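It would be a great kindness if you could assist me with a short task in structural biology. The matter concerns a single protein, recorded as an amino acid sequence and a row of backbone structure tokens. The record follows directly beneath this note:
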Amino acid sequence: MEHIDVVVVGAGISGIGAGYHLQKDCPNKDYVILEGRHTMGGTWDLFKYPGIRSDSDMYTLGYSFKPWRDAEAIADGPSILKYLEETATENGIDKKIRYNHMVKNAAWSTADAQWTLDVERDGEMIQMSCNFLFMCSGYYSYKEGYTPDFAGVDDFKGRFVHPQKWTDDIVYKDKNVVVIGSGATAVTLIPEMAGEAKHVTMLQRSPTYMAARPSQDAIANFLRRNLPAKLAYGITRWKNVLLGMYFFNLCKRAPGKVKDLLLGQVREALGPDYDVEKHFTPTYNPWDQRLCLVPNGDMFDAINAGTASVVTDTIDTFTETGIKLSSGEELEADLVVSATGLKLEVLGGMTVSVDGKPVNFADTISYKGIMYSNVPNLASSFGYTNASWTLKCDLTCGYVARLINHMDKTGTQQCMPVLEDDSMEEEPWLNLSSGYIQRAQGILPKQGANAPWKQHQNYALDIVTLGYGKVEDGTMTFSRATGSAAKQETAKEAA
């Protein structure tokens, strides 16, 4: 059985970042990246729907170590995929990726201080072992998105598709299109399709906050023209981090003020006669759910041009020619796109056991948003809910490297966060009210009310705690192997 020091699962934006940090910070460790699909890129290769783009600026969604050099701060999917491929190739990370390797099961042995992995490789099962398992597999199922059980959908004679399953043969030119949903995917699809479709209707049960923003960052482009690329990138990155933190905190301190600001922007874009109250005024406060970014106001432009419209209602049933609404109105459609969200998944759907006992992650408490109570030598990369994904992933990779190096320094082989305070109040792991998160509460881990079990959702604070805080903090425990691994280590030291 092949043994690797560190196994990274997933070759998307997190896994490529993990590869970079491991080879920089832990050069004496060998690692591989196991990717279940046939190519790298994760989200940015999987999704093929029209207009696919980032919903965060690339100066914070990009890596800390590789400047984003394009003029567009809000980038399309192909540009992001190219950036990831360049990063992997430039750093030799691509040579560490093993494609069509799907990790199905991970079993930890305390005696041996190692994981045994059951991996499906090109249709056959193989086994590998590793000392540390770093999960970078994202948070949603790659197999399918979430689609509600719509009444009468089988009667519909047009085409019905979830954006996650978009294929090149889907035709929308000169067609009537209905997009169900009002989240980031819908807001991306609609302006892109509106340029060719006969008409695109966004059908929503309830509105979402939308914020218009230029697709280019004028300050960033100025800095890049006049300063070295790395310096310009660093300044822009911190500018955007601080602005994002300020805006998020403002949303929490003065939600009414931010609500008025956002809705005022919509009213200015759509004019005084548009029913902003009905179609663009959510019942929740800003950042109770993620805001939708509208680059250059393209969604509003499509509405003003008459090529797109918004309908706020619920679905009674599909018909042969479209969708009948609860109000009695019927929307004619040749194509219906169900932009109804993702199906969340913990650790890529693999099963985990510790010393023969299955781990139910819904019963665990997240440690620093990275590890899980009483689960050794396993970390997962999970980004912020209120900022760019990669910001937290960069810090997570650095922290994992610190753990590994600390074990080498102290002659230990196992690190495990131990929760001793059974009375600590538990909270949901993700603090958003979005439907796709609420549907997954039964499978997600929890977080605690106190550090280090509390997730701060604060990049500046995490830089301090993850980058410079004590690794041995009284909660993270370190120990030696007790079985064959210990004997091998002793023999090695004696030799």
Notes: Residues 490-495 have pLDDT under 50 and may be disordered.
